[in-house]
């Protein structure tokens, strides 16, 4: 600690950063990079595997509840009308007189300097391996062709292009449905995507393949050099203990890092913004979580999980335009054509915002028919301020339902953590799945880590304003409540939505019961990109943690399964906060 008081933050980064890899896995994207990087790689968390047989469907996933019931449809229309009255726009089925135009325009082609970039169509992925001689000089290539003229037809057939066996990231999302590939997403709605259609072993193999590809191709860290690197896992609050354990096994046993440590996303976000106390609202692509942090310690009783995120806003955008008949007559299907979801996400990020009044925009929508070049359709989108309001009125979003993992998935943890939480000595435990027989189980790895039951976590069926209010009020102390209501932190890609901050402040204030002595709500401005703030917090925690008491070493994990730590946590959290502030401002 004495060294930390005198060292320059840049010197800390230079000393510790080059050998620290920070990994922040999410449902839709994974953020990963060296601690010396300013920003991580942000890569779609998916893999497409080549199959010799044409699959019945090119997206292998859990059974989706894509059919909206009559009750859900009525609730969605009712939610739309409530939002419309708040935004002072016509109701869903209200006819707008022709003389009401021109409408209030949000953005139009002539006034959007980013239009040329934003309206560029996505292209289908080239699924063939690159020919080794494709980069040869022209003369050499011609000479090679001359030699082939005398070759037999069998030789020409044998030189037929080969399919790429694995395709990762955005390229995997841009594969045509006509190609013989199966797209898989190993994490869905904040949990490992295990089901009868996607076995546990395949989920782990896909995670290993994706992460290994990123480490080799993006970070240039081959397998034989990873023993010189340590990993910082910044995991979502939605993960249960078994999922965290499997992540550690993947990092230490399979990817062969020398050591690893786990931090919660919410806790890392607080340090990423140079704070010590805040209510962290993480609005991801598929799930939203709320958790309060006091003096650098996460409060597990305040955690709330909401089953919707940015992708649901994109789906709502499509539904809204189709209802208003502003969407072109094209086949847009985000379930069978992930490239359509890429387009909708981009439209949402470019045009959706929260503001009163009618919000329209003229833009170009693209159609992606099987294997054909993208078609362009100029159209006028309307009610662009409605979809993001679904964060406050989730009945508008109607999220797809993903069944939880089988209950047997949680069985081995009833004895592993719940019974040992209050023990002062280690003991032996037999794990029912046999993965780690004779596992040493003792004190928890992190004092401030919440105790998760052996059941899937409960999801709240409320909007983010109610979730924030309920989370903060559950702390039970008026002084802390006042501090947290003035220290709300929005992270995740949706946090960049224009107008979201004042909307959260206004609706949270209205959600506070009248008998509570609280009259001020404030959302703090993020010091860094909300998408990367948790990853940045992982960097700061990893660099400042000189004692490394909570780190798990590869040999210990493989031999014993569970690390018996000393229960250390950041006792001097205010000093760490000052160091984090100094680090960010340097």
From TrEMBL:
Cited SUPFAM superfamilies: Actin-like ATPase domain
UniProt cross-references to Pfam families, sorted A to Z: Actin (PF00022)
Family stated for the protein in its record: Belongs to the actin family. ARP8 subfamily.
UniProt-recorded name of the protein: Actin-related protein 9
Organism field: Quercus rubra
